[in-house]
Specification:
There is one protein chain. This protein is mainly alpha-helical and 274 residues long. The protein contains 16 helices and no strands. The protein is globular.
Length: 274
């Protein structure tokens, strides 16, 4: 019996095929794609103008200059844009798979459900946020007074760790849908709220929130500490600067925990019967 082509493809090969089909479908209407990307770029850029206006008025705030904060802003937005591009299947999982019973069909396929949901849609709209964040990140490096040469290595590593962390949040949200059926809006506190919190120095938050975004949701590990390391900026909270070179690994550790939670949730899934 002849196997279908999808059975003979490796996991990465299958993902490339699904991602390619998704990109072609979105580019079928290029005008819509361009308008959405520009809208995403302008909307996110306007949010940075609010931060810029504060520093334009006061110069520096509590020892933080506009260059350092711009690097924080750009880093977290680029990382979130990557996760948003890859994680669309998990974001819509409750409504499109659990509530309709479509997840049953995924379980019948001889592939990992994580891989199939990653291939649900490679969304291109976040490219606007990505480009805007990258622009602000480069501008921040230009404006910052002390930029380490190692930033060339550490900042991409931090972006990868941040994307892994945000993707982990989306996977955790999808795992909750086995219990709640629909996605919980409260999870947006960890996604969009995390993006907002990551744009500011850790010292601006209360102790309980600092601990939460350091040890529970490792936002500081993938954004704040790598920025301090890259700009040779001492940490007012007393952490050694070198920690920023290693801390993005916490984003991948968080992703690993969320994948374990996902596998546990899938193992306990009871079919809707549809």
């Amino acid at each position: 019996m002849t196997q279908s082509p999808s059975h003979t493809l490796s996991g990465p090969g299958l993902y490339r095929r699904m991602a390619g089909a998704s990109i072609v479908a979105q580019l079928r209407y290029p005008g819509t794609f361009v308008i959405q990307a520009i809208g995403n770029f302008v909307t996110t850029l306007l949010s940075f103008f609010g931060i810029w206006s504060l520093f334009h008025r006061f110069g520096s705030i509590a020892g933080w200059d506009i260059g350092t904060v711009a690097v924080l802003y750009g880093l977290v937005n680029v990382a979130f844009a990557v996760a948003e591009t890859l994680g669309r299947g998990f974001e819509v999982f409750g409504g499109e798979y659990v509530r309709t019973g479509s997840f049953d069909r995924l379980l019948l396929r001889p592939r990992s459900t994580l891989l199939l949901l990653l291939g649900h849609e490679l969304r291109l709209r976040p490219i606007g946020r990505f480009l805007q964040g990258l622009f602000v990140l480069v501008a921040g490096l230009w404006l910052a007074p002390h930029v380490q040469w190692s930033a060339v290595l550490v900042l991409p590593w931090a972006i990868a760790g941040g994307a892994a962390m945000f993707l982990g949040v989306l996977i955790g949200q999808a795992a909750l849908c086995f219990i709640t059926v629909e996605g919980l809006e409260v999870v947006n506190v960890l996604t969009y709220g995390g993006v907002e919190a990551g744009q500011y120095p850790l010292t601006m938050f209360g102790r309980w929130l600092r601990r939460f975004i350091t040890f529970v949701l490792p936002l500081a590990a993938v954004c704040y500490y790598p920025t301090l390391f890259s700009l040779a900026h001492p940490d007012p909270l007393g952490m050694p600067t070198w920690i920023g070179a290693l801390s993005p690994a916490a984003g991948f550790a968080f992703l690993g925990v969320m994948i374990l939670a996902w596998n546990r949730a899938v193992a306990g899934y009871v079919s809707s019967g549809s």
